[in-house]
Fold this protein.
Amino acid sequence: MTTDPTRITSGTASQASAVFTAAGMRTACEDLSEGLADDELCLIAWLGEEVAGAAVGRPDSLAFDDAGREYLYAVLEWLAVLPVHRGLHIGTRLLEAFCELSCSRGARAVHLRMSPSRVTELQGFYEARGFSDAGDGSWSRSCR
């Protein structure tokens, strides 16, 4: 029996920026240049003592349904795994950790957007993990 050497911890904007820089995600780095917003959460994946990936999002955003009732939802803004660590399920671990945390805080669903240029590349990854196309350029997964 093997154990998964990946661990997920809370992280900082600078740790996430280092991952996003190495992954070629300049826009993510620009968004994080001032640090994390008060309502943002950063998760860092570690492989041993090395940072292997990062996820940044808002786990408890407020919205209103058609009847005017408020509810919570989560938005995964950025997710990346360093190229050298891809294929080790680190992205899946980060995604699941973000979804579990968001749902445990009362989110009804987790939403994300993909760059239109990367939909073909990433669609299968997110669909295999329970996300579906919401038809408005976003993808979502229910917490229930």
About this structure: The radius of gyration is 15 Å. The mean pLDDT is 88. The helical segments are 13-22, 26-31, 90-104, 119-127.
